[in-house]
Amino acid sequence: MALGCLIANWLEAPGRSCSRVGVVVGRKVGDSTVRNRARRLLREVFRLHQWDLKSPVDLVLVARPSIVGKRYQEVEADFLQILGRAGLLRSAGGGRDDGSVGTGSSGSPAGDGGGER
Prior knowledge:
Largest sheet: 4 strands, mixed
Distance between the termini: 37 Å
Structural class: alpha+beta
Number of helices: 2
CATH class: Alpha Beta
Oligomer: single chain
Helix content: 25-40%
Radius of gyration: 14 Å
């Protein structure tokens, strides 16, 4: 399924206790620094939202060239929208099982270009 800056492929993994992710970023996306940033963004979005999935899945995220220059919040919105359309997300009332608190769509994890260095 393709939407925005990424393509998602998945396979349900009922025998597993947690989901796994693989990230693919082709050379068409840009040079190595651009590809690595795209990879980090997609992994971080998955890390923060993996407990929002209904059941464990093996997920492959493929970055599209349109990911270049996008901020974390934009990538997160595309990720949540594509998983929502696929029916992989829990209902809006569902939360994380581990009691942790994520940044949400207004948060900004380290490495997104914000803040001082």
